[in-house]
Fold these 2 entries.
Entry 1:
Amino acid sequence: MITRRTVLGMLAATCLSPPLARAALALEEPEFLKEKLGDGALPPMAERLPKVPRVVNLAAMDRKPGQYGGSARMIIGSQKDIRLMTINGYARLVGFDEHLALQPDILESFDQIENRAYTFRLREGHRWSDGHPFTVDDFAYYWEDVLNNKEMRPRGLPLDLLSEGKPPRFEVIDPLTVRYTWDVPNPDFLLRLASPQPLTLALPAHYMKQFHPKYADPETLKKLIEDSGSDDWTGLHIDMSRTYRPENPELPTLDPWRNLTKPPAEQFIFERNPFYHRVDETGQQLPYIDRIFLNVSAPGIIPAKAGAGETDLQAGGLDFADYTFLKDAEDRYPIRVSLWERTQGSRVALLPNLNCGDKAWRDLFRDVRFRRALSMAIDREEINKASFFGLARESADTILPQSPLFKEEYQHAWAQFDPDLADKLLDEVGLKERRSDGLRLLPDGRPASMIIESAGESTLETDVLELVTDHWRQVGLALSVRTSQRDVFRSRALGGEIMLSVQQGIDNGIPTPDMSPSALAPTGDEQLQWPVWGLHYLSAEQKGEAPELPEAKRLVELMRQWKRSSSTAERETIWTEMLTIYTQQVFSIGIVNGTLQPVVSNRKIRNVPENGLYGFDPTAFMGVYLPDTFWYDGSA
Amino acid sequence: MTASLPPSGAPLSHYVSTAPFDPYSVEAMTAGQAKIFQASQLRLMWWKFKKHRIALASGIFLLALYLMIVVAEFLAPYNLHTRNMDFIHAPPQRVRLFHEGQLVGPFVYGRTMTLDMDTLRRVYADDKSDVQRLRFFCSGDPYKFWGIWEASTHLVCPAKDGEFFALGTDRLGRDVLSRIIYGARISLTIGLIGIAVSFTLGIVIGGFAGYHGGVIDLVVQRIIEVLQSIPSIPLWMALAAIMPVSWSPILVYLGITVILGLLDWTGLARAVRSKLLALREEDYVLAAQLMGARSSRIIGRHLVPGFMSHLIASATITIPGMILGETALSFLGLGLRPPITSWGILLTEARSVSVIAFYPWLLYPMIPVILVILAFNFLGDGLRDAADPYK
């Protein structure tokens, strides 16, 4: 091995003609690591890679294998957004490919029986970013000493690991194989591992043990706790083991780039993980780009900075409205703007709070005729024209045509502009009386004036709401906008203080039947159309209230059925019924979807897709397009 | 000697000449001189003020603006919220007089919009064959004048089925000129209401502090110092955040004016206090006190009018501060909220980078803000000079 490397090195040094040099470069070590390799701090590539690395066949993806080098700048709106590196890095035990098929990634292989028993086989020789082997011990440590530690998790396992309330059995089969077995199916399990914010199953035990009282010397641990300012060891352990937001530069990782900067900072530097497990078809270890700089900046000026060439790869913080400006900047700066399609069910959705505290309004919101009237009173075409150049798809809050589950009837369900029918429905629900200025009166005599809560984050929301206000005024309903912090939304909605809120529609607009339909049923307290019902499900019926509408009940029932299901065909039936109920009942009022997202990249960077799907779930922003395969073309 | 005295109690014998007497005979004045020397205080101030040309011009400008906001509905070519989806982000149209060398009176060329699907811009081009004559005193968007009478008369309207956007349109195709005119209503009155609050507080609090002195003065002075030491923007932000979110925009508007007023009285109170400290030693105050007048009467009737002109001048100078305060608050998203439209709101909506790059006409509301602030400053300057006409 060493001989081959030396020979290659000599070749590269002596062959000055470019084509030959490039051919040699294909098996060359990254220039970036030369120094460390030289003084023996790092072993050669063959020893850094697992025995069987994951080979990314770029040619099959219509891309070209590239060359090492360069650093890319990105702008983030706040320090919290260093999680973008975990999302975009997209190193998962199992992950989606471009076509949303599940692939083993960190795992060499996986296999499952009836969605109950999952067997994971690790890659032999796979190492954490500090060079320590990644083994079943890391799974065992996390399972035994973290997940099942009473102090660490007083309330037991995370919900994702429970199936009908029961935890799995964890077994170590051999030094490279682990198995999780439930008695009943847990079809969500693999998807949770592939999600942008993945379920953690393993931590670098060799590093984390120093923070665990079971392994650490009590005196040293006590000192560590005091120095860190944590209350106890659990706090310290949690702080030190954050993987989603990689705030601890010392924590070994499996991601393509590892953080070098401890927050707080204005700039975060991520550097290539020399032990990363993916290679391209020529055998070069990924990622191609050596370093990523994340610069923290005020969210409002990200478009301006992107248009001034201050970023090499950017989608976050940019909006469709900025496209014209960015396109114009193409002439002045070496950037390239492409348009991807967003995957939300609706770019802007209005959510009537079925758990609203005001009885009169709550009754109205729970009346499907009222929700349908609200939906049909909106002139989606005007909104599309005004804010999206007519390029968006006027639709209810539902899935996109790219999804195999799509049916046209979902898109058009109560989404036509029909103020007359809306008027008729409003008369029917008991809002017949009107004030002299045409505003309808509630049965108790108050004017039908609604307040919608907005986080006020984008002018797009403001514009859409302005138009909707006008449209609804035409049918005799008044709407006023209240701006409040996104952080307090949930608690206020749970308290019934929110009437309506404006948000993005369902997150995953391109599901396959195997993905969880949880967004369509009351399953979480962040669902502002039914936070109290969602909390009921989320807390395993401990908190909140059970859904009262039969349709919502049915959705929860279907959700539970999906969780127990063990075949794709069965899931497809469940999805279809849920989508039908959700769109027919108009639980959220969608406006347009399939809107376009500008993606700015440096003109020298290769392999950035011209068209893509952009969304958090399931594409993990750019994650499924593998940013570790993006490279700088030095000759361009 | 005693014989010449009248008896006790009887009037002293004296002589009054009936001959005409001119007290100014020693120093005879011409009619012109008399006019000057015998002029009232107000007249003197006016003369002095008139000499300050810029102040005079500013005064007239402001007066015109305030008259304008009274009839905003009539002056604006469109309504505040009238949208025109076919003319989004249309640049300002030029008003022309001559078409192909012939005088046709004020008109604009019609425009055609094409969508540039590559850069996603709306491109507007003048259609030279489509002459759209402007109409005056015409019927346009119907509105409720002062919220009471139905009307539809506008000073100027576009030709039938035509458009007239003198200052362009915004991202929902709303006419910028109309929005500036309507926005003036809020922006200009917010200063006046705010100043009324701060004036009242300043005179009352400063008056008592100055007149009574002692402990009251001490306490008031310390409060003022504390209030003045707090940075104003964060304090506004805090107060604006307290306002219940369920308030209607009108209540928010009043709340903002009160906040602006509540924070602004300190300077005025200081001025009132120092004046009163000097004036309360005057003989006429002692006389009033001897006659049994209460302190509120002495301050209100005898002391404050003595330097009212001064106060008005200084108030004039603080109005722009209020207008800027409102603009700043609204710009930060803490002040007024749509659908109430002020200049600050208009500017907030224009703060994205694309606006500066492609739609600079959305920044026009800056111009009236600058002009009004300047005008108030000049006016205040002139009034201050005039308040002391003998100088």
Note: The first helix of chain B runs from residue 31 to 37.
Entry 2:
Amino acid sequence: MATSAVSKTLQGASGQWKRYLAQLLITVWTHRYLYLMLVLPFIFFIIFRFYPMVGNIIAFKKYQLMHGIWGSPWVGLKHFRSLFDDPAFLRVLRNTLSIAALKLLVTFPAPIVLALFINEIRHMVYKRFVQTIVYVPHFLSWVIYGAILYIMLSPANGLINNVIASLGMEKIAFFQKPILFQPIVIISSLLKETGWAAIIYLATISTIDLTLYEAAIIDGANRWQLMRYVTLPGLAMTIVTLFILQIGFFLNVGFEQIFILQNSMVLTTGDVIETFIYRVGIRQARFDFTTAAGLFNGLVGMVLVLMADRLAKRMDLPGIF
Amino acid sequence: MSEQRTFTRRQALKLMGVGTLGTYLAACASPAAPAATTDGSGDAEMPAGEKKTISISHIGGGSLEASEKSQRMQLLRANFPDIEIENRWVSYGGYLDKIPVQIASGDLADLQFCNAFNDIPLMMENEIIIETGPLLEEYGQNIVAVTPAKAWDSTIYDGKQYAVTHNIYDLNIWCSQYRGDWLDKLGLGVPETIDEYGEVLRAFSNSDPDGNGKKDTWGRLLYNSVRFDDDFFHAFGVAVGHHLNGFWRERDGQLALDWVQPGMKDALAWMSDVWADGGFHPDSISIPLGQKDNAFHASFAGNVYTSWNSIDFAQDKIRTVDPDAVIVAGPAPAGPGGRGYTGEGWPWCFVIPITAQWPEDCVRIIDWFFTPDIAAQIMCEGVLGVTNKGLNENGWCVEYTPEEKAAMGDEWANKQNEVQDISVFWGLWLTIGTLGGVQPFPTFPPDMKKHFEDMLAAKYSENALAAKDLSQEYLLLTEKARPVAAEKEFWPGLQTRFGEFISQAVAGAIDLDQGWSEWLDFFEKNGGPLITEQVNQI
């Protein structure tokens, strides 16, 4: 009797699976040209994104070149234990979290605000001029941008310090003070990338139905209210999507920027997971150990994405899954 | 009317999930194929009519294209017609990152360039290089004849040798250089002692040596992390070691790291005093390493510690902003712990990985460079016949003298532009010592040797040659022969922590006494004693 019930359940499940597969095939065939367009990106992701993920396994092995990824002996969670026992790692974790949180709080909303303000500019020539000016820094590499910052902030003859001195104050060695490192990172990110990041919001604003503005104006809305009740809600989906995507890279605080700006005097606040991985993993070739650090980084990012997605859905906003 | 069917996100995610899982399982099911290996016996046989292929990895300036076009590479290929030389150039700026990745991925050339101190331990740990002693005995007589015995120290493990060649001249090329004209204006002499040296730095910063009425000059710009400023550390009997590599000396019959000796604290206290008095350029430590000589070249700093052979170049450069500038070299300042300049020793070498099919030919190729007749053709700087004079009647290369270059004017600039990629390329030939200037081999016949000695003498100013003598006179090398196993795990942490500590101590950002005890405590708890024990077991 029991056997028969199990058999029926299995048959039912099998039948359901067949129906599902048939439906899937029909769907794929119906949209075959769209799927065809997906083939190349899909292959790209398989080869360059998913296949390399297999290598993460060395986080649990003592990686030896002679024996390769699969032949190297397992060491379980040894690298993770070493990682969390390493005082340097605890410090880089703290710095990474701090910079990441500051970046999220400051640099994420900044382009939204900038886009809203630019959208309010009525003089077209001036609007384009402002847009161009704020985009330009994005096209400079961090190497160039970092050099400009060094020159501007130099205590010897930097522009900012000359202004400070002319006001009768003492010059500041900006890059020698650990307490100033994170603010410099945040402000330089803000100046360099805000304009570029605002593009996507400006594009979204341009898709908002103009009749909504007309209706609001007829109802007596002023410009502030238009921005508050029409433009901002129109941006909500984009903001949530970009927020969730950014959360996924929460711990990736920007290797290039930090590496260019940091020096041995500011490591207390400026050493982050990415620079730690570079220094220990690449320079000292401890690939297994730093793969563990990278894996931890990725896992934190994944958990945060899932949490942000769930939170967005609870707030009746669209998630990404 | 047919119903429009849509492909839902749920279906797409499932499809992606199935695809990803399938790929992952496929990858798991196919273990990496073991690399083809050889036991180093050289038994591989070549099919008739086919060429052997030997890849050579080497570093240098310029580009792969430039190294392909160079006369040296053409000469090499012409001399070994039965061998296909695969040129694997690595940029000088990228080798520190590239080589560990090459090692980890197994993508090693048959003749692999590496840094003996950093890379050989890693290769030994992975058992991927072959012993070279017997091969050198049989095929590398020219190499052996010109290489000092001490150069091999960093490549000997358990009494066996694991490198096929080395840079044959130690990189002891650093010395302290001063603005002689500033010293004259201030009525100061070239400092002999650490106290005099401190006074010179303070005077350069505070006594307006350029006479423009502005406070825009400084004593010296300290390099990034204070890791290349060993000249005044040695006055206290300690050194940091170039690249924060450490400096070991024998103390009470045991090798001990200078970083934890009391002299280190004294040196930091002395530097901190000079810093407080404004003797160091305020951009010190925080400025990127690539700009280390800029303050000197721009006539802002009056002292620099760098390679002796850059002295003429520096003087020309400074004279573009101050026509009266004169650069003079000085001795290492003497202090309570002695005096000295740190030499880099013999870091660079070629090794042969187990994947090399023709190890004997690898040695033959390198040995060929060391035969006097060939070395005499390729050891000059510049491109044959363009930025050097080409070969003389004996077949030995000849460089232009500084006077001849100056007389050529624009023509010289045009020649340099024409071959700029090639002229800065010295990669594979680094081991024969062109970095420190053309230096004749001890195996050269007397007339050939005299030719290159005369050329070297004509190439540099008297000041530069005096600087060369000073850099040799005060040479000090670390006494640790090679890296030890414990360094892999502990050295990065110690290096970072020490660099951080000394930078903060010099700039007065921390209390020296407290910082010093914290550093000693860190050293004790993070592998310092284990490394010391292993170093003494070598």
Note: Residues 52-170+346-444 of chain B form a domain with the D-Maltodextrin-Binding Protein; domain 2 fold (CATH 3.40.190.10).
